[in-house]
Specification:
The chain is α/β, with parallel strands linked by helices and 234 residues long. Helix content is 25%, strand content 35%. A seven-stranded mixed sheet has the order 9-8-7-10-11-13-12, sandwiched between helices. Strands 1, 2, 3 and 4 form a four-stranded antiparallel sheet that branches. The protein has a two-stranded antiparallel ribbon with strand order 5-6. The chain binds S-adenosylmethionine.
């Protein structure tokens, strides 16, 4: 069980030292195991879902889901915090990092983390949040799953709530094939969405195996089950 406390709930509209883009923000504290993370997130993100949505060139509707902190990020953060020392010294890639929670916990556990998202503003929040939690050596890269930009490969790939749209499955699986070391591990979390099974079937067809566990998180006095998948090459 994870405890989410809002120690500060003041709605502040400001640019913090010009490091953050201009959104109404609030500060929260998230406790996973014995790690406390300070996070600055967007206050009342619903309004931005409309404002920042757009129709892409192929007429599909794009929704900026990065404006929310998803329960899957808390679930994945909790899961990796329980992995003892297994992330220490590892090269970790966080894909679709949003506000950066899971990458920050991985950094606290001694990993060298590369935070990625294709949304520039999400990366600014992730960077700000990493800094306010004392993360000293991390990298922040704007990257689309459809156009990976790394020469290097990673021991661990973290992904919370990124498989919700079927169009992303193929690029994400190709990304795993390209960027995970031979004996590497990818850890995905998702909140039991209806279509998740399709992604994991496809993953298996493409040479990966996985184990599934479930963890419970407590947010605003509501318990939610988050699925955690530990993925390896066959
Ligand atoms: C549902 S949010 C999850 C955010 C964060 N991981 C969490 O759990 O709070 C999905 C994230 O993936 C990012 N994303 C969506 N499509 C992407 C793509 N094609 N390439 C890279 N990032 C993408 C979004 O900007 C967003 O931050």
């Amino acid at each position: 069980m994870v405890l989410l406390t809002h120690i500060e709930y003041s709605v502040i509209i400001k640019r913090m030292n010009n490091l953050l883009p201009d959104y109404p923000i609030r500060d929260i504290t998230i406790s996973v195991e014995n790690i406390e993370i300070q996070l600055t997130i967007i206050e009342e993100p619903d309004q931005f879902l409309d404002k920042l949505s757009r129709e892409d060139s192929d007429s599909s509707l794009y929704l900026p889901y990065w404006v929310y902190l998803w329960g899957s990020a808390i679930g994945l953060a909790q899961h990796i915090a329980r992995l003892d020392n297994s992330l220490s010294g590892k090269k970790v890639l966080d894909i679709g990092c949003g506000f950066g929670l899971t990458g920050i916990v991985a950094s606290q556990l001694g990993a060298n983390v590369v935070f990625t998202d294709f949304e520039h503003d999400a990366l600014l929040f992730a960077k700000y949040n990493a800094q306010q939690n004392g993360v000293e050596s991390a990298t922040f890269i704007q990257m689309d799953w459809n156009a990976t930009c790394f020469q290097s490969i990673f021991d661990v790939i973290l992904a919370s709530d990124v498989i919700y749209e079927e169009q992303n499955w193929k690029p994400i699986i190709e990304l795993l094939q390209k960027l995970l070391t031979k004996n590497g591990v990818a850890i995905f979390s998702e909140p039991n969405r209806n279509n998740a099974g399709g992604f994991f079937r496809s993953l298996r067809e493409n040479g990966f195996i996985f184990e599934k566990t479930t963890c419970n998180i407590l947010v605003d006095q509501k318990t939610t089950a988050i699925n955690i998948y530990t993925i390896k090459r066959e």
